[in-house]
Amino acid sequence: MSTLSGEVFDYVTSGDGIYRDGSYILHSYIPYTTGYGGSLLDNLSSILYTVAGTPYTFSDTLINRQVDWVFDSFAPVLFRGAAMSAVSGRIAWLNGNESERSVCIITGLARISQYAPADRAKEIKTLLKYYLDNNSYKYETSGLISTADFITAIERDTSISAEESKHSAKVFPYMARVSTHRGDFA
């Protein structure tokens, strides 16, 4: 557990990993947030979900860092839940469907919303509700049965509002990328 928390959760200053600016780099210099970064988020959320509530649960600090990644690294490079190709590495060439490429991110977010602290889980569920309401892709039938249940529950939960996408701009110096969201385009 200490190896996972030390090598995966720590921000990097060079090479592969997540940088404080939200960049996710793999293969030394390739922006891969919506490629392998999505796989990291999804697989890591499986581990944290599995051990949540057990003696092996991760600290709130590490869970909150993962939630920070959601908003600092992943949300800026998703448009209505679809993955931006500029940060997908070679995966953009292998799979041109941006919504399909984001399945691991969406399912990871759904899983994280199950073990994150209540206030942070609500933020994620609000973001997910927006993605689900504004993208016709059927994420609930694309992942595991457990995440399908989480996604369906979020879709049906009338207490969760699907807030409109906020106007934003995010600079990722380590990836040499900028994303901007302006309501109906990104």
Strand order of the largest sheet: 1-2-3
Largest sheet: 3 strands, antiparallel
Low-confidence stretches: none
Given the structure, what is the number of helices? Answer: 8
Radius of gyration in whole Å, from Cα?
A: 15 Å
Helical amount = 40-55%
Overall average pLDDT: 89
Oligomer: single chain
Following the backbone from N to C, one meets helices and strands in this order, namely HEEEHHEEHHHHHEE
Number of strands: 7
What share of the residues does DSSP label as strand, in percent? Answer: 5-15%
Shape: globular
SSE topology:
Blueprint: H1 2-7, E1 17-18, E2 24-26, E3 30-31, H2 36-51, H3 60-74, E4 78-79, E5 82-83, H4 91-94, H5 98-101, H6 103-115, H7 118-133, H8 145-156, E6 168-172, E7 177-181
Antiparallel strand pairs: 1-2, 2-3, 4-5, 6-7
Helix pairs in contact: 2-6, 3-6, 6-7, 6-8
What do these coordinates show?
With 186 residues, the protein is mainly alpha-helical. The chain is 46% helix and 11% strand. It is built from eight helices and seven strands. The protein has helices at 2-7, 36-51, 60-74, 91-94, 98-101, 103-115, 118-133, 145-156; strands spanning 17-18, 24-26, 30-31, 78-79, 82-83, 168-172, 177-181. The protein has a three-stranded antiparallel sheet, with no helix packed on it. Strands 4-5 form a two-stranded antiparallel ribbon. Strands 6-7 form a two-stranded antiparallel ribbon. Helix 3 runs antiparallel to helix 6. The longest helix has 16 residues, at 36-51. The mean pLDDT is 89.
